[in-house]
Amino acid sequence: MTTAKPLRVGMVGYAFMGAAHSHAWRTAPRFFDLPLQPQLTAVAGRNADGVRAAADKLGWESVESDWRRLIERDDIDLIDICTPGNTHAEIAIAALEAGKHVLCEKPLANSVEEAERMTLAAETAAKNGVLSMCGFSYRRTPALALARRFVDQGRLGEIRHVRAQYLQDWLTDANAPMTWRLDKEQSGSGSLGDIGAHSIDAAQWVTGLNISGVSALLETFVQERPLAGDLVGLGGHGDLSSDAPRGKVTVDDAAIFSARFDGGTSAGAVGVFEATRYALGRKNAMRLEVNGTKGSLAFDFEDMNALSFYDAADSPDAGFRKIFVTEPEHPYVGNWWPTGHGLGYEHGFTHQVVDLVTAIGEARQPEPSFADALQVQRVLAAVESSAANSSQWQKV
Amino acid sequence: MTTAKPLRVGMVGYAFMGAAHSHAWRTAPRFFDLPLQPQLTAVAGRNADGVRAAADKLGWESVESDWRRLIERDDIDLIDICTPGNTHAEIAIAALEAGKHVLCEKPLANSVEEAERMTLAAETAAKNGVLSMCGFSYRRTPALALARRFVDQGRLGEIRHVRAQYLQDWLTDANAPMTWRLDKEQSGSGSLGDIGAHSIDAAQWVTGLNISGVSALLETFVQERPLAGDLVGLGGHGDLSSDAPRGKVTVDDAAIFSARFDGGTSAGAVGVFEATRYALGRKNAMRLEVNGTKGSLAFDFEDMNALSFYDAADSPDAGFRKIFVTEPEHPYVGNWWPTGHGLGYEHGFTHQVVDLVTAIGEARQPEPSFADALQVQRVLAAVESSAANSSQWQKV
Amino acid sequence: MTTAKPLRVGMVGYAFMGAAHSHAWRTAPRFFDLPLQPQLTAVAGRNADGVRAAADKLGWESVESDWRRLIERDDIDLIDICTPGNTHAEIAIAALEAGKHVLCEKPLANSVEEAERMTLAAETAAKNGVLSMCGFSYRRTPALALARRFVDQGRLGEIRHVRAQYLQDWLTDANAPMTWRLDKEQSGSGSLGDIGAHSIDAAQWVTGLNISGVSALLETFVQERPLAGDLVGLGGHGDLSSDAPRGKVTVDDAAIFSARFDGGTSAGAVGVFEATRYALGRKNAMRLEVNGTKGSLAFDFEDMNALSFYDAADSPDAGFRKIFVTEPEHPYVGNWWPTGHGLGYEHGFTHQVVDLVTAIGEARQPEPSFADALQVQRVLAAVESSAANSSQWQKV
Amino acid sequence: MTTAKPLRVGMVGYAFMGAAHSHAWRTAPRFFDLPLQPQLTAVAGRNADGVRAAADKLGWESVESDWRRLIERDDIDLIDICTPGNTHAEIAIAALEAGKHVLCEKPLANSVEEAERMTLAAETAAKNGVLSMCGFSYRRTPALALARRFVDQGRLGEIRHVRAQYLQDWLTDANAPMTWRLDKEQSGSGSLGDIGAHSIDAAQWVTGLNISGVSALLETFVQERPLAGDLVGLGGHGDLSSDAPRGKVTVDDAAIFSARFDGGTSAGAVGVFEATRYALGRKNAMRLEVNGTKGSLAFDFEDMNALSFYDAADSPDAGFRKIFVTEPEHPYVGNWWPTGHGLGYEHGFTHQVVDLVTAIGEARQPEPSFADALQVQRVLAAVESSAANSSQWQKV
């Protein structure tokens, strides 16, 4: 470990995602052999006290109150962007142009146009060996990585159905406070971009198919919510008095869409997607089911260490096989604990660091690239377009 | 039991549904106190040998080879229609006009126009005390009846989401044979009318809300299938040689649609529906999830004796409560076995007979009426219309 | 159906078990082709009004107020014994000696001595073609029959562990009323014989191994309970006032024992058994798990249509496969509904009739024989003996 | 964080447990506010290269090749013992006598005699403010901590049943290699002490009851296993050739026992325990079910973020409520991620560090104390004694 060349990281933002990324940077080299040794060199944030406290708590060596300073520093090799979506394009493009590798949280941007510029910057930078990746961390859940392996191995046959739900419930209470995630200016969209984007990426990645068209419906159940301080943070647990001043919710509360994959002919797979924060009782139910002609897969992040697999070859004694994805042969898990000792939410971020650092060490493009994330962005845009147009079919 | 006035039943059709209905007519009076005593007076079918064998096996006293004869008989009080959808209108209207009560399998008809005529006939007949009901038997599953009770009691609060899937897999194999269920002429539609209709009825009935508009996608994955004999029967298990003559599949294999309930304003509940026979590994997964502001419900017919209920009032120690619906206080089950002894598929039909005979005995309209079933038919038509029109929103 | 020779049945007792058996006699010939046609000829019970009402409700042609009269009748071919255990020996032996086939509810008797006399009578009668069977109906659950098939096929390899629980909760309330099931004189034992006997039979039958020794603990949590009328019926739901007169509970509330199978060497399989009516929330959790060197099985009657099967050959992608036991190739189910349409509690009794009538029609010994049931009785006795002797190991 | 006084840790052993403990020491202060700041000062191990590599990988500042040196060092405040059980007593007593706090892995020792000496040393040291704790880390699983809270709150009423299983399968293959865990000299016992001890501690801690007597059966299915190198490491995944030299397995493969709690009168709760490494398909199924007169609890470590709770007050609509233990109000989890984002196996060790450091900071006895662990040791000894004595009841 000590002999590896350092990879000096500068992180922008230090809220929920910043904490998860920090843990990943600290932990990855303790369990995996990496070609470069991550160093938590600096963290940037506008609030000087806040960033200083975060640096202490999360283990960063120094702080900056402006992300631009981070990019200017010579002792930073990689910029890790953990801020709201409206800032991604500016930071990422500046970092790439300054020759810094970039890890950017999802969704890549708040618009296709921004995502296109970012992708262009990424592709230009890549020619000089400067690499970039978008943080669709659910790909690094061992069970979903195993799902993709099964598809790659042909164990599902031809794919017919994709059924993807991302269900949360933290907005069910109409008096849960307004947060930046409900402000279109900052977040780009609501459940669609925040959690639906994960479903889109996971569905496309696991199946190896791209969504070619959609028909969509967006809904905002609660139009105004009580304002609580600075609109920063995940929120969701507070319940303010009903006479607090209220802010307008400018994003979707729920997104529903049907999809076709890869060209949209009648021979193709069809999908149903749903993202909401009003599915009372579902806390983080990021679910994916794929039905093929030879096999089926089902996953629910609320039971994240398991993958259900149905193999038609087992008929008539077939049944969904609940695979506890903790065997040394399974993706990632061999580096952790013995069989049967499950992982948690943050391990996806650690694996993301592993994959990113490994790719940088081997000077190859990490996945998902900005171009991959741009495709997701285009699906998000198509969903919004269809929803605004009486659900009419919208090509991606 | 012996002192109750008889209710003399004539059944048309004797395949899968005929067997289920026969069992129900025989069994209902053994476990429930009915105001009228069902008698299995006659069964009608075109094939003389077949109907005779069925009568013996299923317990019918006499046979007819023409359903018209059944209607002409004085010793028949009720006509039970268990034939494909294209025959429903003619039989039901004739029966009602002849003063016979009618139980008609779902979907009510193959078109809205037929369903409207049937509803008109039903309403006219009702003025003379001749009653009719459509056979959406899933309503009689104790767990779904309990779900409705919970909604009625206000335990869910305002409803936000409905999520309804009806997943089967018996057509996954592209060489599974052609059956009447895949022929639009006979069946009206495919997965949409056969199983999706159950989801629509259950969703509307449990929530007490009507679907007001839809955006839909229909798909036929396999366009031609090997012909196997007379196209009668459920099929699905055979696997014919690939050089058998093939028939054209003229119905949908899968139906997907989003919906709004009750008026379609943005304040209303939204729904996602999916019906397919290609969800490999799902055998009869008729699932319904409802999320409200106070509680949520989840049901899967593959575990039909359980209802999952989430009560937000239990927070922070809330969780989906898996209610084993076998308590004497639960709908229907007190008449069967002690707590904990589950029921099976056919009990829904027995309960349907109980409800129908009780309503007739009390001279009141049984539910679901033909008018209720017409509403489902209108949703089916709207789905087909939207699907044919680039998924554009279609009011019901 | 109509051409088969009749099998004229006389049933003794008409409570819970009587209702289940009546349904089975009525229903079996409607779904299965039987070599003999069951006829519900007569039912016997001491209470004249009660037995008359039961006959009407359950479909019996005539009544007797003394079981001895039933045995004397020439028009009865088979005696079906549905009374408490203390009456089994006398009725069964008399019936067998009178040349009547016998179906006797479990446990076979209230003592090994009675069971031995019954077995002797059965073996003597069998020489004259008079057959007998004990009603361990859980064997007829399709999922458990499939479990046995898997063991027979060698899919489990060498068996290491058996884990059997039968958990109910209807006595949790200390004021639930006294019933005949809590009176040792009538019932022989408590949870041990009532439900534990099912676990013992199922474990031995599925594994093909016999229990060779046990170490046991019996417990009675509530020593006295309010008296409610005639002490007949399952009880368990009433909650009498605390000043009602109380009767002494003379049986075990819970039975726990460890076991060795087949000879008791250290190389053999070991088992853990638990039967209780105080497992709050478990309504009819008759569970069986078997671990072998090649595969494992798990079953829970609360989800009775499923069998979980783990095949080590699937490693490293192995997982418990939840088989929905509704395929036509599975035991019994091909005669019922299409794939995916589950069965209920009473189907086990119907299948029991099918197997019994088929064996009688083919003039061969039905299973489980009285000798098989005697082995279970010996295990019950060993459990009681060990429990009375400081849990010391007791050979069977 | 930086202002807290340091707590300088010296760890002995660096295999599976050493890695888990290291992660916990590194991570705890990043997510929790601790009164002392843990420092990974030194790690000791006999193999100089091995310990050096481990120190680099796991983040320890220095190394020692003899644990005695660790104890002699002035810059060490706490000794963390992660070695096999036969070394615990010597190290722990020496450390305590040297004034070092001690965290000792479970089981506390390989015999009651050792455990008694350790407890005496702990109690003596405590008078001087030197504290000690035994590492029953499963107590720190949020779901189990919530279970204990429910019992404390009286939500279960009087406890009737405890049902504890710890099922693994890594020895099912008779050719899995010999390891130190199968050598009585090093490990003290087999499944009993390794995993059964966790069940005993969890059952006693959650219920607040002590086991007062047991009846037990121990079994060794495979008497000899191929030798693989140094007998160090968890093993279990290799499969050596059948002609490798073989070592004798001197511990139990499976342990089964029944128990009474708190005095052993017939009014007390009863328990069933099972620990095995031959339950094919069960990877780390540490399960606990508790049935009381008012409520029941069920937990399975294979789904470690969930606790099932049945509240009889919900009748007749009661059901096991699957609580996703990720709410901020739940034990420990508020310091991690938002609701719905589950934790993994290693979090228990992190919470253990939190509780230990907090207790040391507050100068109070951490739990479980050595005295608590001695009670578990006495249960282990009683189990072995009963098993050696024909399962006869053995008081603890």
UniProtKB/TrEMBL annotation, chains A, B, C, D:
GO terms for molecular function: nucleotide binding; oxidoreductase activity. Keywords: NAD, Oxidoreductase. Residues 7-126 form the Gfo/Idh/MocA-like oxidoreductase N-terminal domain. Residues 146-297 form the GFO/IDH/MocA-like oxidoreductase domain. InterPro entries: Gfo/Idh/MocA-like_OxRdtase_N (IPR000683), Gfo/Idh/MocA_oxidrdct_glycsds (IPR050463), GFO_IDH_MocA-like_dom (IPR055170), NAD(P)-bd_dom_sf (IPR036291). The keyword Cell membrane does not apply. Pfam families: GFO_IDH_MocA (PF01408), GFO_IDH_MocA_C3 (PF22725). The keyword Oxidoreductase applies. This is Dehydrogenase. It comes from Pseudarthrobacter niigatensis.
